[in-house]
Design brief:
By secondary structure, the chain is α+β, with helices and mostly antiparallel strands. Helix content is 36%, strand content 27%. It has 10 helices and 11 strands. Strand 5 (142-148) and strand 6 form a beta hairpin. The protein is globular. The chain starts with a strand and ends with a strand. Pfam families: GHMP_kinases_C, GHMP_kinases_N. Catalyzes the ATP-dependent phosphorylation of L-homoserine to L-homoserine phosphate.
Length: 299
């Protein structure tokens, strides 16, 4: 049996929506999965080629085996994942979420009873430790995720297919390092400020209101502690906002995202210059928000 799995890029946090909001974009990682042969193998083309492990140490296979064990499904004798990766690793665009989901989804296809989005959400959220990226990657659009007891639950919002610019500087910043920079406790006023801005993010993205969204992206819980780790990022956000976009870190960084830029090329160049002023080169992505999530096709 062969299947193809496609999972989109995502941007999480969205300023004040720390660990609970994310949106999907039209940039995809995909894998053709062949349930035959012996052993577990991953072949990577594109992003991560020659870097990612191609054996059982790969996150895809770890997620695949984790899900099989959780569901009590007998592991097949062999599986090969042929991956076409377009989402850069360690970028703040959800590359690890796509790997986790490809493994989880592949496992559930071996028993149709479990091949559903809620199962994907619960297991991928457990593996990731948070479910914002994986939720947006599963459902598409804008997703608000929360945890009730031991289960993740979502609210889904269709969004306008607006453009966004993502500027990725050459900074090696792992999600672990970015999370380690956060304080254990925050002032009550900062927590209240973030909570008060959530409706502005939701409504701004749902309706395409860039001014409302810009106000919602103002964050006090994570960006003040992460921006110093990414030289030029604070200036890039400020420059994008000044040019009419709504800007924030993408995920934990190092990417900076500018939603709904008036002039995408001008905005991207101005943001890149902020990093260049700090001795950093950049990769630029011109993306579109989408209301489509992970897809499975039987070949």
């Amino acid at each position: 049996m062969q299947i193809q799995i496609r999972v989109p890029a995502t941007s999480a946090n969205l300023g004040a929506g720390f660990d609970c909001l994310a949106v999907a974009f039209n940039l995809w990682n995909q894998a053709t999965v062949d349930f035959s042969g012996k052993g577990y193998h991953v072949h990577v083309n594109g992003e991560g080629e020659g870097i990612l492990p191609e054996d059982a140490d790969n996150l895809i296979i770890k997620s695949f085996l984790f899900t099989l064990e959780k569901l009590g499904i007998q592991a097949p004798a062999g599986v090969r994942f042929d991956c076409e990766n377009h989402i850069p690793m360690g970028s703040g665009m959800g590359s690890s979420a796509t790997a986790v989901l490809i493994g989880v989804i592949a496992a559930t296809t071996l028993n149709p009873e479990y091949e559903n989005k809620d199962t994907w959400l619960q297991f991928s959220g457990e593996l990731e430790g948070h479910a914002d990226n994986v939720a947006a990657a599963i459902f598409g659009g804008l997703v608000a995720v929360r945890k009730t007891g031991d289960r993740y639950k979502t609210l889904l919002y269709d969004i306008e297919p607006e453009n966004a610019v993502v500027v990725l500087p050459t900074v090696n910043l792992s999600t672990h390092a970015a999370r380690k920079a956060l304080p254990q406790n925050v002032p009550m006023a900062d927590a209240v400020s973030n909570i008060s801005r959530i409706p502005a993010i939701l409504e701004g993205l749902r309706t395409g209101d860039v001014d409302l969204l810009r106000d919602g992206l103002v964050d006090k819980l994570h960006q003040p502690y992460r921006l110093p780790l990414i030289p030029g990022s604070a200036d890039a956000i400020q420059k994008a906002n000044a040019l009419g976009a709504a800007s924030a870190l993408s995920g934990a960084g190092p990417s900076v995202i500018a939603f709904m830029p008036v002039n995408p090329e001008e905005t991207a160049n101005a943001m890149s210059q902020c990093f260049a002023n700090n001795g950093l080169t950049c990769r630029i992505y011109h993306l579109e928000m989408i209301n489509r999530g992970a897809q499975v096709t039987r070949l």
